[in-house]
């Protein structure tokens, strides 16, 4: 497999066998992976907050129902 530099793009090479363009920018790949991981972490945190909010809503509904029952008995 022979690789040729692509003119005007220092991090791109072309495979002469298949004609494929290959990106050899490792720092760009690392940056992409960090951003992807950060987005996954944010999504996980958002899902956790949504779940906790649902639990709080359920608890508040139960408290409201119990208070209404107490008021109706008195």
Describe this structure as you would to a colleague.
This protein is α+β, with helices and mostly antiparallel strands and 74 residues long. The protein has one domain. The chain has one helix at residues 26-73; strands at residues 3-5, 12-15, 21-23. The chain is rod-shaped and about 90 Å long.
Q: What strand order characterises the main sheet?
A: 1-2-3
Number of DSSP strand runs:
3
Main sheet characteristics:
3 strands, antiparallel
* Uncertain stretches: none
Relative strand content: 5-15%
- Mean pLDDT, rounded to whole units? 94
Oligomeric organization of the protein chains = single chain
Rg to the nearest angstrom? 28 Å
Shape category: rod-shaped
Write the layout of secondary structure elements.
Layout: E1 3-5, E2 12-15, E3 21-23, H1 26-73
Antiparallel strand pairs: 1-2, 2-3
Question: Can you describe this structure in just a few lines?
Answer:
The chain is α+β, with helices and mostly antiparallel strands and 74 residues long. The protein has one helix at residues 26-73, and strands at 3-5, 12-15, 21-23.
Which structural traits does this protein have?
74 residues, 3-stranded antiparallel beta sheet, 3 strands, rod-shaped
């Amino acid at each position: 497999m022979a690789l040729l530099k692509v003119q005007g793009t220092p991090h791109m090479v072309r495979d002469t066998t298949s004609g494929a363009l290959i990106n050899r920018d490792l720092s760009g790949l690392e940056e992409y992976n960090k951003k992807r991981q950060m987005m996954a972490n944010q999504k996980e945190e958002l899902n956790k907050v949504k779940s906790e909010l649902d639990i709080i809503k359920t608890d508040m509904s139960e408290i409201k129902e119990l208070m209404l029952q107490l008021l109706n008995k008195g």
